[in-house]
Amino acid sequence: MQAAIEYLTLRKAYPKIPEQVPVRVSMEELSQILYCTPRNVKLILAKLSTNKWIEFIPGRGRGNLSTLTFCVPGEEILFMEATRLIQKGTLDKAMELIRQYGEGSSTKNRLISWLSGYFGYSVEHNSQHKSEILRFPIHRKMNTLDPAYAYYAFDVHIVTQVFDTLVQYNQSSGRILPHLAHHWESNVDCSRWVLYLRKGIQFHNGHDLTAYDVISSLHRLQTSDEHNSQAWLLRDVESLEALDSHTVAIRLRRPNHLFLQILSFPPTSIVALEACESTALAPFPIGTGPFRVERQTDDFCILEAFRHYFKGRPYLDRIEIFNVAVQSEDLGFLMEPHVVVNTGESPKQQVPSWIETEDFYPGSKLLTLNQVKSGPLQDERLREAIHRFLNRKQLVEDLGGNRLYPSNGFQLKRPPSYEDKEFDEEKARKLLRRSDYKGDTLTLYVYERHVPDAYWIQKQFGKNGIQLEVKIVEWRDLLLPETIKEADMILYEANLSHPQLSLLEALQSPFSFIRNHMGPELASVVDVKVSQVLSESTNEKRERILDSIEQILKHNFALSFLVHMKLETSFHPSLRGVQITTNGWVDFKDLWYQPNEAVRFLTST
């Protein structure tokens, strides 16, 4: 509300004047304070007077001073405006307002106390029913809710809450499970597929799911901009046909034994036919998932439970997600959002009474080395030197946190080891001396989550004569083609939520930093191997081919694996149904709260 800002600006200009004590002012003075013309000053004063925040008596006659009286403490207006901004989903703006106008006041502590009750679980009552709400902060922006463009883990996670795929992949068993499709068949070589849809499934707009929605969704993904989407997933699709309203036939250009896994991948989620006619899915995405999008901005998202969800309505009525910039001095109020997934972006918060779980993160943190860009990294000796200078065991010991073991591959091998057999400082120095490196400054691009690792690497390289500049960018900016092209190295986390398919994504997707940093010859070799993976019918042989691709990448020093990580989750004892998805986030659908009354009833004597 602009009136609040104007009042706070005036109040800040007269910090020593108590409320209810008149102060003599001139219109020229107020114009300078409010940065506007005398005419606009009069409008502002009239508005503030109407709100009963000030009393203003204009001076009579030219040159006579006016009288201004503050009626409301500035801290009250500041608190009111900050809470209003938070309820609108702009928490960062609220904290910036506190920093700008609340210095030396108790407003920040008061707001922190208010937030401790606002975040987490709450119940809102109206005349008809109660609404159970879970509000929690995250330290990253939502880049897109469009399945065709979803790449980052949190975007993909939200997509899975709003949309459904035709089938699902069970990581623990490695099996494909029915979902929107209750059954499927293929010919012998898996080049033709028929899927049979469940009846009675509704989209969030009330329309029933049909084969035509499936065809339009897959066609939309297939024909989307291949340089900026996940269209690579369906490049083998030759034709899509509705045999009837609930039967879909798909013809492929070549055998693909991973096609069902592809149809379980979130970017192939089914979107309502009407929404497919718009490239932007405006104004909100329309899926069949357990939650519908009520509101979404870069910094705020409201998900409402979809009462007609075909696998059962969610237990919670609403999920509110707030993006919070990582400001360590302001993190105290985030102590109790009732569920915390520690991804390493903020200090770990420990609450003694909470339940804590740990698991391995599926994938690896790694460094890509750009072989497309002309410059020092064209020299394989320099790339190997960079690889050998990295003491991954020391990285784990120095930075700790959720870093668990040195990594030498995409997946954690069993049994894990703390030893780093790739680190060889003496060999690295010899390689560096033999290389053509002349002291050029290399660029390492990274987003906030991995900044400590980037600076650690910068220090290791610096003491060995390799100049490295760390460039910190936003998540979405890291995906820009010009950023990827410019970067000599990119540090990020490869998530293998679908072990084989996620690895193929890293090798084929236009979003993939690994793919974009491969030289053309290496990319051609990898593409041949990927074709072999898709045509191979047995899982064991596919694994061997994928392992050979990993060895090729390592042999060419196209990347350098850094560390495997653990995933830590802590949550309030009353929160039930906590399940961590393969993307490393909490599945919202099955969350529910045990009422305090139930605990008292069960424990009373």
Automatic annotation (TrEMBL):
Residues 12-100 form the Transcriptional regulator SgrR N-terminal HTH domain. Keywords: DNA-binding. GO terms for biological process: peptide transport. SUPFAM superfamilies: Periplasmic binding protein-like II. InterPro entries: SBP_5, SBP_5_dom, SgrR_HTH_N. Residues 176-495 form the Solute-binding protein family domain. Gene3D superfamilies: Dipeptide-binding Protein, Domain 3 (3.10.105.10), Periplasmic binding protein-like II (3.40.190.10). It holds the Pfam family SBP_bac_5. One of its GO terms (molecular function) is peptide transmembrane transporter activity. PANTHER family: HTH-TYPE TRANSCRIPTIONAL REGULATOR SGRR, PERIPLASMIC BINDING COMPONENT OF ABC TRANSPORTER. This is Extracellular solute-binding protein family 5.
